[in-house]
Amino acid sequence: MRFFEEDPARARFLVVEVNGTGSGAQSRRDRTLQGLADIVDGGREELEKPESVSRCTAEIVAGAIYGTVLGRIESGYIERREDFLAELVYIAVLPYLGSRAAEDELLVQPLR
User: How far is it, in rounded angstroms, from Cα 83 to Cα 51?
Assistant: First the structure.
């Protein structure tokens, strides 16, 4: 998030403009999203029954995070330094640890 705040032009290129580029750049974006899904999917290990949540859940969460970042960059929120990292963590935590844990993440103050 700091990178996006410090270099909004590059953030816009990497997150927004990539959607209008060739298949090579889009393929790279998709691999990055799968990497994010891999990280999020580790949340299943926190569950009593890891098989109760599918890999697809992690892919949906990764897509939701990407979509949220995309929307914020398009609307200029990152350039205005509005912090929404807690919201992204909320999205990631909710399907694995439940609403209570996810809501607690909204109260965490970001490191500066």
Answer: 33
Q: Which amino acid is at 7?
A: D
Q: pLDDT tens digit string along 21-30?
A: 777 878 888 8
Q: What is the DSSP string of 8-52?
A: HHHHIIIIIGGGGS-HHHHHHHHHHHHHHHHHHHGGGGGSSSGGG
Question: Mapping DSSP to helix (H, G, I), strand (E, B) and coil, where does residue 54 land?
Answer: coil
State the pTM of this model: 0.82
Q: How far apart are the C-alpha atoms of 50 and 45, rounded to whole Å?
A: 6
Place of tokens 């609403």: 99
Sequence ranges of the domains in the chain: 2-105
Under the banding of pLDDT at 50, 70 and 90, the label for residue 35 is very high
CA distance 91 to 4: 19
